[in-house]
Specification:
The chain is α/β, with parallel strands linked by helices. The protein has two domains: about 130 residues, Alpha-Beta Complex (Aspartate Aminotransferase, domain 1), CATH 3.90.1150.10; about 220 residues, Aspartate Aminotransferase, domain 2, CATH 3.40.640. It has 15 helices and 15 strands. The strands form four sheets. It has a seven-stranded mixed beta sheet, sandwiched between helices. The protein has a four-stranded antiparallel beta sheet with strand order 11-12-15-14. Strand 7, helix 8 and strand 8 form a beta-alpha-beta unit. The longest helix is centred in the C-terminal third of the chain and has 25 residues. The termini are far apart.
Length: about 400
Amino acid sequence: MNEYNFDKIVNRKGSNCFKWDQLKEIYGDDDLIPLWIADMDYEIAPEIVEAIKQRIEHQIYGYTFIPDSYYDAAINWFQKRFQWTVKKEWFEFAPGVVPGLNIIIGAYTKPGDDIIIQTPVFPPFAKLIKDNGCSVIENPLQKNGDRYEMDFENLEKIITPRTRLMILCSPHNPVGRVWTEEELNKLGEICIKHNILIVSDEIHADIVYKPNTHTVFSSINEEFAQNSIICTAPNKTFNIAGFKTANIIIPNEKLRKEYQIQADKLCIQAGSIPGDIAQEAAYSKGESWYQDLMEYLTNNLEFTMNFFEKRIPKIKVIPPEGTYLLWLDCEELNINEYQLSNFFIKECKILLNGGIMFGKEGKLFQRMNIATSRKVLQEALERIEKAVNKL
């Protein structure tokens, strides 16, 4: 019997929750079931809550520093989860992976440089690149049946003398791929050959479904470690995104110093008391909660895929190897990309992420967050079924 109750429906409205409280303001309808923003509708591990409570009861919240126990908890988690050995001095702080990526682009590129991304992909990648005056170079993933793969041949063709960085999404959001070590090796060799720094966003690394296993890019070999930056955080795994914390892990000393210079320019130098406490407690005391979470998400995934296959066969689910985000192929609905999101909002009363925001390859897709209670998930699927049957 599981120790934690993920079936519990928690009313998040009125908590300044973007996922639920912005429905009326943005979409004019607070009766939508929001399965869009990538956070979970589950109460966090009570061990995290208790650690924060104990610190709050001290009642003084002045300037602080990150203790060794914070690093030890993360290092032990990475070692156990991924057999990845990390040193304390490799850690740099960012108030989230996206701000960390912004620091990275500012540190290692100049306006006019090229940065490669693999679309369809997490939308902030392209925005950050453009905001820093760089050019977005797309190496679209190739859809092979119901599986996406990297296009290594095209990657070699699009590299120019101005190419400085490649942002890797691993596991990939939104298509759910967990890249194999063989794939990462091919990618790493190409980037070494062309002197391209790999920046790997691995925030979803813990959410991987058996029998798949996540390989941290820099763990493959020392050459890759010296030519990569790993961006990670406990935020997705433990549902603590609101604490604004992330770990930017840089084994290369020269690259690390350049990151520090850019972070100092932006006055980003330390975390917050609750964020530091939450991460340490998550990594040191959250193992049991995490294991129950993965069992629940696995069952949610099986339930959802079976529902689509048997009752909404016009929508095809790309089987995810990782993340709690599903990539839905809606081509058979015969609704164009301009009307697709409106169909889910107006007819299904469901809020998903429109696939077009991830790149032109996603124009007939939607992204669906299944990290909610089974009852809410079932209600959402039944709404979709009812609306699709009326088409």
